[in-house]
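Um, can you check?
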Amino acid sequence: MTLLDSAAVVPGTRTAPAEEAVRRFALTLTCPQRPGIVHAVTSFLLQHGFNIDEHQQFDDPVRKTLYLRTAFSGRSNKGAPALAEEFAEVAGHFSMSYQIHDQTRMRLLVMVSKAGHCLNDLLFRWRAGTLGGDIALVVSNHEDLRPMAEAAGLPFVHLPVSPDTKQDAEQALLRLVDDHGIDLVVLARYMQILSNDLCAALEGRAINIHHSFLPGFKGARPYHQAYARGVKLVGATAHYVTADLDEGPIIEQEVIRVDHTYHPSALATVGQDAEALALSRAVRWHCEHRVLLDGSSTVIFR
């Protein structure tokens, strides 16, 4: 018997229990304003042996509502569902709407058409580890961006859409969401209008990006319209998808100053930069549970 074997069987000894791993969580909540809310949250975390890593709150004097995000960590064998259940008593006392999230990374389905600038930016940030979630697959109504997706090692699913096939295509999309365990659908310049039923099915878990000018230009060739009007600002808006076209709760907006020297193609280039920036920020903030939805608006804890 070797010395190591002998040490392993010394009578009367016990193997030390495995040390609990450090686990990280984020609590997000909204509730009516009243004294004692923060004290109740921090007391709960202290009683459970957690350390607060990041805390942000916003007291809205108009809505008379408190919005809060607290990131915390500690050695625990409890997961987010168990902690959420134990927190229910505190939440009930203050009429809180709340969620406790763990470190599980969100899985993303990216939808595209022909323009690749937003997809390219998302792929770069994903591979660099700064997107906040993991892209699981790319879906498109055209074949144009298949090489870009497959070069990144991602499945590419072609779902052509016509008036006759729209319903079937949307049902196929929902099956992909279920089959791949998708947490967030990202419309990265996907140039199809989603049906009301699909918007309802993806409520709170689908983000869209669109160009937005001051003033706004609708219809074809928006950058040519902007040039004709001599715009001084080019922008983009990332928002949650709703049945009201391009009017969902806003997550992020990016604006870039331009002048009379920007011809339509230059405006389009600047606009694409704004779109990519706004969309990637919105995706990351959503994946990090920094976006609190409140009806038609949002509170963002950056």
Notes: The first helix runs from residue 3 to 8.
